[in-house]
């Protein structure tokens, strides 16, 4: 029998692509204002490198950097596919997670579109995954990667709210599933992922009217959560954490490094698929990993990268060696990591060297993006906690995304033994600090 311990309930809501720069506006909105009045806050949180959704969310629940937990990109390394799979499944994370440790202690866990949870041992799990092959059906793919009966119940009750993965319908569906699960199944630990703002910033830009509207929808959703907690009589026994995973930067041009690698004879490809390669670029939005099969080729590749960086209007902002990238937590297998210049981002294609972002011509192109180095000016995110285990009004000057998992584990009485981060005790009630 599991050794169950009783702790206050924990709800973690990830506001994808919401950052430090949004806090002033958030505190003017009614429900965020209501929340922050009683919250402990760190307004300056440094994400991971690359600052992408999947590496970031794996870091939040492990306290480890991407290079250590293994989720080094959103996309898996599948250059032979025009549309690679994402790191959807829990099996790709090395080591333990917050929800694994909670389950071991007999806590009931729930997750709603939390990245990298497909197939995880989460009692109430609606994993983020989608049909990536023409012959696949979305509902069947989802059912295969989480508790069948639980998901079937949610799709039956709320599936009509969906419009594919379009926003704001997707977050409205997630919200309905989450609130329903709170009341019916009463989980001890909940992980919730809202992507409305991220979607609108990609499509329209960081400070667009559409992004501001999405933030206002988040405010309404938060109000529904707080009202539900009060209705259930849980206010004094529930911690609600709001956090961001990364921010975004406006982009006007997209670069295709593999165009040059193909031109140099370092890769061969057709119809968007790489057939063979000696040197290969894999994009991560605002940065890009360069993989080199033979170590002896690295000096030539470095020489080419440096020449590319020096060209007028180059998309290259900075070049890191593989060792430097690994030290910053990125993929230790890459030979180089290239940081995009302001206004640029990278993609994997190889049919053209670059193009301007013109969404009327190609709606897949992004006016806002992430993946950049987390220390770039104005690019940080935030962390806030409200509830019995957080010190109302407390603050921390700065923290790293790796510190969030250990902080959450601390208030649940759990351990993340391989975590690289540390709990931020200044945000917690004095009883936790005294126990350290």
How would you describe this protein?
The protein is α/β, with parallel strands linked by helices. It folds into 2 domains: 9-248 and 377-435, Alkaline Phosphatase, subunit A (3-Layer(aba) Sandwich), CATH 3.40.720.10; 253-365, Domain 2, Phosphonoacetate Hydrolase (Gyrase A, domain 2, 2-Layer Sandwich), CATH 3.30.1360. It has 15 helices and 20 strands. The strands form 5 sheets. Strands 1, 2, 3, 4, 5, 6, 18, 19 and 20 form a 9-stranded mixed sheet that branches. Strand 11 and strand 12 (287-292) form a beta hairpin. The model has no long low-confidence stretch (mean pLDDT 95).
User: Per CATH, what is the topology of the largest domain?
Assistant: Alkaline Phosphatase, subunit A
Mean pLDDT over all positions: 95
Range of strand content: 15-25%
Structural class: alpha/beta
CATH superfamily of the largest domain: Alkaline Phosphatase, subunit A
| β-strand number | 20
Largest sheet: 9 strands, mixed
Low-confidence stretches: none
Q: Descriptors for this entry?
A:
436 residues, Alkaline Phosphatase, subunit A, Gyrase A, domain 2, 2 domains, 9-stranded mixed beta sheet, 4-stranded antiparallel beta sheet, 15 helices
